[in-house]
Amino acid sequence: MTAMRLTVNGVQREIDVDPRTLLVHAIREQVGLTGTHVGCLTGDCGACTVVLDGRTAKSCSVLALSADGSAVDTVESLADGDDLHPVQQAFWDEFAFQCGFCLPGMLLTAKELLESTPDPDDAQVLAALNGNLCRCTGYNTIVSAVRKASGCATTCVKESPCRKS
Amino acid sequence: MTPRYSAPRDLAGVTAALADGDGVVVGGGTMVVPDMTHGRTSAAVVVDLSRAGLAGVTAGEDGAVVGAMTTYTDLITSDVPLLSTVASGITGGPQIRNRGTAGGSACYANPASDVPACLVALGARMRLASAGGAREVPAAEFFLGGFRTARRPDEVLEAFVVPPLGGAALGYLKFKLAEGSWPIVTAATFAPTGGPLRIVVGGAAATPVAVDVDRPSVGSDDPAWREHVREAVHTALDAAEPWTDVLAPAAYRRRIAPVIAARSAGRALEEDR
Amino acid sequence: MAAPTLPDSAIGGSARKRDGAALLTGRARFVDDHQPDGALHAHVVRSTVAHGRILSIDTAAAEAVPGVVLVLTGKRAAESAGPVPYFIDPAARGGNRTDIRCLQVDEVVFVGQPVAAVVAATRQQAQEAAALVAVEYEVLPHVLDAEEALLPDAPRLYPDWPGNVVMHNRYGTGDTDAALAAADVVVSGELRIGRSTTSPIEPRGYLASWNAAEGKLTVHASCQNPHQMRWMLATSLGLDEGDIRIVTAKVGGSFGLKMQGHPEETLVALLSILTGSPVKWIEDRRETLMAGARQQVHRFTVGATADGRITALVNNIVADVGALTAQAGWAMPNMSATTLPSGYLVPDCRIELDIVVTNKPPVNAARGFGKDAAHFVMERAVDVVARELGLDPAEVRRRNFIPADRFPYRTSTGLNIDSGDFVGLLDKVCDTVDYAGIRRRQAELRPLGRYLGIGLGFELTPESSDSPGTFVSGFDTTTVRMSVTGMVTVLTGVTSPGGGNDTGIAQIVATEMGVPIEWVELVQGDTDRCPNGFGNFSGRSMVVGGGSATLAARDVRDKLALLGSRMLAVPVDRVEVADGVVRVVDDHERALAVPDVARALLTRAFAIADGIEPVLESTRAYKPGNIDHVPDQFGRIQPYPTYSSSLHAVVVDVDVETGKVVLLDYVMAHDCGTMINPALVEGQARGAVAMGLGSALSEQLVFGEDGALLSDRFKTYLLPRAGDVPELRMVHQVTPSPFTMHGNKGAGEAGVGGAQAAVANAVEDALAPFGVAVRGVPLTPPVVLGLIDEAAAR
Ligand SMILES: Cc1cc2nc3c(=O)[nH]c(=O)nc-3n(C[C@H](O)[C@H](O)[C@H](O)COP(=O)(O)OP(=O)(O)OC[C@H]3O[C@@H](n4cnc5c(N)ncnc54)[C@H](O)[C@@H]3O)c2cc1C
Ligand code: FES
Ligand code: FES
Asked: Domain Aldehyde oxidase/xanthine dehydrogenase a/b hammerhead spans what residues (chain C) (predicted)?
């Protein structure tokens, strides 16, 4: 076991890991934040997404020790107490999740996109979401949530009588 | 068995850690870390390049020197020819582009990937370093087969060098089955001013296959020229080791390679205009 | 459609998901998020051969790995655990069965079958040790293809069976031979539906905690059916049901996969009992991907009149269910048979079904539950007839649909369709997609080398099934309880693996009780708290969970109204409960807050509640109508109360040089009766369509000749990603069911078969100039290009 340091959601943590320990397991099991999920451990699904030193990464494909001394922000960092981040709010309003297992990747990549590209077009939204699998929603509502969070008035899902305006 | 972990601070540290030849290099980690998790890769020592200072693109006299740890995201905003556009088409989302490296992709040498054919088309040179010294291998000689390269186990890819274009136009196209699939066939076209085109096809064989074709006299959608490309690509593929993976058999790759090659050439010619 | 002023929380409103904040902030706890102190980790050692006899298992090296607590083999497991009982026992339906064990004892019948398990302090140690368990096999011949498995000299999976057939069944009535002989045209075809899988993003997982002192077992499970799981564990482990608690609070998607019956359920519980510690096992994605969802070959013949009326259908089905499983999956092909001929007036049908085992991992229950295949086949058949007669496929559908005034309508296979308006759906879809306009564009673009196609797919979705003598139950139970403070707790037997029926049920209860939805707490998926129930499957949760919640809520409301009327000194028929008050109907000023009435009943029972039982709680079961298990003169039963329907249209653009299919537009007209929450209905529908599109275009489990799964990650098993799915446009039609509480029908499965059929028809339509005949799904680029080449060679 090797000792290492992580700043998780602004809080400094010291943890012990094995050289093979994945960052996702360190966060979930050593740090104890379970909002970051494990869906595949192959880098394909995106459920393990975190923000590592300011950029999104799939924490199943990062060795914990590679992140020694790094700052990690997880999905738990998005809301401020009971105040949801606008991206979270939009996802809720737009029914952009069902089981919610994919949310870490969806929310954090959406946030990263909107920070660099405040008014993305559809192609940019789709490219940003490309690394996240969702098996429940069929993605349409996720795309409209990202666009809604960007403040874009037009939405992608036409003719849906149920949608809140 | 628990491996040792080493994150050297410089290249010399890396080559020292690899000197025994029983190390596994972790670049961006996007392939190799899952491979370790699933027991597909193991070694006595894990050599993590993330602190070795190998990231970044510098302009050298004989071209752009792309550090092995330069990520796709870094490449997108760089002016490295071809790779800057190819990088934005890498799937897996920003999370993969933020960590994955073109160097790592080259070393992984999956025939069904974007980078190999591009490096060959660009005439890149791979800079390999070991405790015994450094050497450069042309990209065309670097890829030896599916998941096999000229890199020795005690060597690290330090960087690759992309020579100046000299005004050549470029075109790139990849074909995949769905958003999330490995590329099936890729084609990178290098179109030097006035000269014949060099199309390098990836994914259709175990290593990138280079084909030289004349420029079309009419346009790139001229059936006669496309037939010419088709034949040239087929002839070249006949001599190459076929490649099959779970997603597509060799016959399909061979079947569509000329199509993708011609379309890629079309893009280069369009850019040339 | 909802009236504009309707609050979101009412029945028919689009209330947001009630667990939204917990899920969005990462606070929601899925099974792997429970990490009790001292929990050990299990890893399953799986067969590396497709068929073999276990000669020996050497566990010494594994046991020597630091941290390893237990290495369990099948032999030892069999000393402590009996066979896993079936969700649907084939024997109960006259079929062949075999004992399903948590670990195989003597023989293995597929690559990946559990043969041993390792428990260790860490996941890593367990995994490492598992790799060191040395299993020696005598390799036996195997068979991976169902049609080969039917040959007389094929290797047998289960030596005591007469062959490899679980069961052979025949369905349908009428004289198909005579009808075919009389038909103006007779067309035939063969369709292959490839093996796909459900693959929710959360894999399966179980955390079992055995409390030896009390003799009690608690299992946190990613599972759809906690009560059935409790019963199954009680049976396989010889425990009393009362000593087992199953908790399935948050489930990260399921789609049938997490219906119970998996060997690991019994296994993990047993490992906890044997080690005396909590034991957790979370599936690796490679294990999740083994579970098949469907694989069938259909050979059909249809007869039709010259004007396109289909008069007869013959269909022979060979279903490859892999190895037999205690899970419900093996039974799905029955539904492929009985759901034919779908929503069409085809009086004479003969459907022959062989459910066949092969040396592949089992087919597990999957959204669509076999009904999807019926639609794929029927919709292809309709298109083939249209093509043969030179008629438009939309028109042929119109001529054959059961007319809206014929319901309830009993089909040739015995299903009693409650209601619908299929022509209405067709009109809506054709309008929305601009059917005529697409045909024009198609004609314009063909000369330019672009090949557009449009395809239709109708889907009839029998929902909320009941299967006598099994754990497929058509009713469910809910308790509604009001506390002294007026807060409402709803405990229900149905579960929600993500779809949001918890929100819908809360809407129903709030509406029925006349209280704000914020007062309503919902408890699901806990066998110690919830009444006996059957969980989630077959689009049942809003029909029977919602129905039973309605009954229970009305009981409590009636009592509030009665007491309130006394307190207000008016007759009971002059009060109503609404907006959290009991008030006089025509004088809203005279009102009592519901909490005050509740408190009065529970604290002043003898003072003011003479003759009223002082309990604000009701437990009710709801049995919808239309289910009939008494066989009619043809032996047909009627296991479904409601039938949702939908019509799908897809516009594709096929690249004829590569075979790639690009989806340009998608419209689904959907009728699931009354919608309790339209946004959640749409969510289900879109999710199902996306799943259908995946299985139509890219998803396919690929096995090597040795029976090992090759498509074992998401780069080789291609789930749709955001860029693969076009905008899925939804149009609703509401034909209330006469047989359910609110007129609602099941929603959640419709989409898979319709999408597959529409895509297949669209691809064939696009490639009509080449004379291509589609023969199955998935239509991957290599397959499509192969079809073009083949047509050219003809
Ligand atoms: C979800 C997902 C989507 C992807 N999409 C694409 C795609 O669209 N196109 C595509 O081509 N690829 C794709 N890939 C693969 C991608 O190219 C590689 O993941 C990435 O480029 C590899 O770089 P890396 O730095 O992460 O390599 P690593 O995983 O760190 O290493 C890969 C291999 O190279 C070796 N290695 C790495 N760096 C060096 C070095 N400097 N010297 C010596 N050896 C080294 C490692 O030991 C290992 O064997 C995808 C991967 C994922 C997970
Ligand atoms: S768990 Fe990391 S990408 Fe799936
Ligand atoms: S909401 Fe279930 S996977 Fe996305």
From this structure: 25-141
Query: CA of B181, closest CA in chain C: separation in Å?
Result: 5
Angle at C667 between CA C756 and CA C408, to 5 degrees: 75
Q: How far apart are CA C579 and CA B245, in angstroms?
A: 63
List the one residue out of C352, C288, C267, C266 whose CA is nearest residue C317: C352
For the question of whether the overall pTM of this predicted structure is more than 0.80, the answer is yes
Question: CA C240 to CA C234: how far, in whole Å?
Answer: 6
What residues in B contact C657, CB-CB < 8 Å?
A: 256, 259
C311: Cβ contacts below 8 Å, ≥ 6 apart: C179, C180, C182, C183, C303, C304, C305, C346, C347, C348
- How far is Cα C313 from Cα C109, in angstroms, rounded to an integer? 36
State in Å, rounded, how far the first CA of chain C is from the last one.
Answer: 51
Say if residues B207 and B144 touch (Cβ distance below 8 Å). yes
Decide if domain C475-622 falls under CATH 3.30.365.10: yes
Please report the ipTM that was assigned to this predicted complex. Answer: 0.96
Domains of chain A are 2-77 (3.10.20.30), 86-149 (1.10.150.120)
- Whether C288 and C139 have beta carbons less than 8 Å apart is answered as no
Indicate if the pLDDT at residue A85 is higher than 50. Answer: yes
Into which CATH architecture does domain C294-467+629-793 fall? 2-Layer Sandwich (3.30)
The domain C37-140+200-288 belongs to what CATH superfamily? Aldehyde oxidase/xanthine dehydrogenase, a/b hammerhead (3.90.1170.50)
Q: Cβ contacts (< 8 Å) between B36 and chain A: which residues?
A: 20
User: What are B233's two structure tokens?
Assistant: 């690509």
Residue in C closest to A161 by C-alpha:
C1
Nearest ligand atom owner, CA of B176: 1
| Euclidean distance between CA atoms C143 and C154, whole angstroms | 7
Please give the class, per CATH, of domain B169-271: alpha beta
| Sheet with C476-482, side-by-side order of all strands | C520-524, C488-492, C476-482, C617-622
**Residue C719 in contact with residue C199, Cβ under 8 Å?**
yes
pLDDT in tens, C184-203: 999 999 999 999 999 999 99
Architecture of domain B54-162: 2-Layer Sandwich (3.30)
pLDDT of residue C7: 86
Cis peptide before C226 (omega within 30 of 0): no
Amino acid at position A54, single letter: G
HEC profile of C602-648: HHCHHHHCCCCCCCCEEEEEECCCCCECCCCCCCCCECCCEEEEEEE
Query: Cβ of A2 under 8 Å from any chain B Cβ?
Result: yes
CB C331 within 8 A of CB C652: no
CATH topology agreement for domains C37-140+200-288 and C294-467+629-793: no
- Cβ–Cβ of B95/A105 closer than 8 Å? yes
Angle between helices C435-445 and C422-433 (to 10 degrees): 50
Using the Cβ of B93 and the Cβ atoms of chain C, whether some distance falls under 8 Å is answered with: no
Q: At what angle do helices C332-339 and C371-389 cross, to 10 degrees?
A: 40
pLDDT, one tens digit per residue, over A119-146 is 999 999 999 999 999 999 999 999 999 9
Give the helix/strand (H/E) hosting C650. Answer: strand C642-655
**Every domain of chain B and the residues it spans:** 54-162, 169-271
In this prediction, residues C744-758 reach a mean pLDDT of 94
* C646: its two tokens: 């939908």
pLDDT, residue B49, reads: 98
